[in-house]
Design a protein that fits this description.
The protein has about 210 residues and is of the alpha+beta class. The protein is about 50% helix and about 15% strand. The protein has a domain of about 110 residues: Ribosomal protein S16 (S16 Ribosomal Protein, Chain: A), CATH 3.30.1320.10. The protein has a five-stranded mixed beta sheet with strand order 4-3-2-1-5. The radius of gyration is 57 Å and the shape is elongated.
Length: about 210
């Protein structure tokens, strides 16, 4: 009879945990088993691997073959390394520190992952709070307040220029041609009245005399 060390699924849907059992390889996965060696709970952080280590090594020494998943779990907690060292003639008590160190590494790795997740969460929360404060901050009205003051300064300069020259100073718009007023020209002499020649005047008087006669 071929004997395997494998997982037996238990628990509700989406809340599964697994027994680590020794069973006949011909038996169904969740069927009858020979002995339970422990359990595996992947939902915990870190995943909980509870195992009767000496029993597991005893079954390995009897020829029981672990499934791929169980072999990976045993390697994670140092059982496979302990088993290989025991095959060289060393006792379990001498090698107990292997499992202890492996479990400490698992715990340290899980603690580091939790710390990274917390730091990442804290950064996201700080960024969200910063964005919320910026969105709630009042709009800066300083530029709008400076505009009337600048207009008043321009008006004062124009008023001073008007007082000095007698007329308002107007600056040409950008792009407009500047036309300078021509200098004062001397007034043109009035044209002389047209004079009647003396001969024509005399003949006109004679005609008037003849008419009277």
């Amino acid at each position: 009879m071929a004997v395997r060390i494998r997982l037996q699924r238990k628990g509700a849907r989406h809340m599964a945990f697994f027994r680590i059992v020794v069973a006949d390889s011909r038996a169904p996965r969740d069927g009858r088993f020979i002995e339970q060696l422990g359990y595996y709970d992947p939902l915990k952080d870190p995943a909980d691997i509870n195992l009767k280590s000496e029993k597991a090594i005893d079954w390995l020494s009897k020829g029981a073959q672990p499934s791929e998943t169980v072999r990976a779990l045993f390697s994670r907690i140092g059982i496979m390394e302990t088993w290989h060292e025991m095959k060289k003639g060393r006792s379990y008590d001498e090698l107990a520190h292997i499992e202890e160190e492996a479990r400490k590494k698992i715990e340290a790795r899980a603690a580091m992952e939790r710390r990274k997740k917390e730091e990442k969460k804290g950064k996201k929360q700080a960024e969200a709070e910063k964005e919320a404060k910026e969105a709630a901050a009042p709009v800066d009205d300083a530029p709008a307040a400076e505009a009337p003051a600048e207009a008043d300064a321009v008006a004062e300069v124009e008023a001073e220029a008007s007082d000095e020259s007698g007329e308002a100073a107007v600056e040409p718009a950008e792009g407009d041609a500047v036309v300078e007023a021509p200098a004062d020209e001397p007034a043109a002499d009035p044209e002389p009245a047209e004079e009647t020649p003396a001969d024509e005047q005399g003949s006109a008087e004679g005609d008037e005399t003849k008419t009277d006669a």
